[in-house]
Amino acid sequence: MSEWLYSDIVKDHFMHPKNVLEDEDSYQADGKGIVGNIRCGDQMLVAIKVKEGRIQDCRWKTYGCASAIASTSILSEYVKGKTLEEAYKVTPQDIVEHLGGLPDHKIHCSVLGDKALRAAIEDYYKRNGLEGKLEKEPAVVICTCMDITDKDIEEAVKKGAKTYEELQNMTKIGTVCGQCKEKSLELLHQYNHLYGE
Amino acid sequence: MNRIYLDYNATTPLHPEVKEEIVKSLDIFGNPSSMHSFGREANERIEKSRKRCADLIGASSREIIFTGGGSESNNTVLKLVGCGEACCCGYFGCRNEVVTSTIEHPSVLETVKTLEKRGVPVHYVRVDSFGKIDMDHLRSVVGEKTALVSIMYANNEIGTIQDIKAITALAHERGALMHTDAVQAVGKLPVNVADLGVDFLSFSGHKLYAPKGVGVLYTRTGSPYCSLIHGGHQEGGRRAGTLNNLGIIALGKACELTGREMTEEVRRLEYLRNKLRDGIEKTISDIRVNGHPTDLLPGTLNVSFYGVEGEAILLYLDMVGISVSTGSACATGSLEPSHVILATGTDSELAHGSIRFSMGFGTTEEEIDRVIRELKPIIERLRKMSTVYGKNRELQGVCAK
Question: Which H/E stretch holds residue A142?
Answer without folding.
Answer: strand A141-143
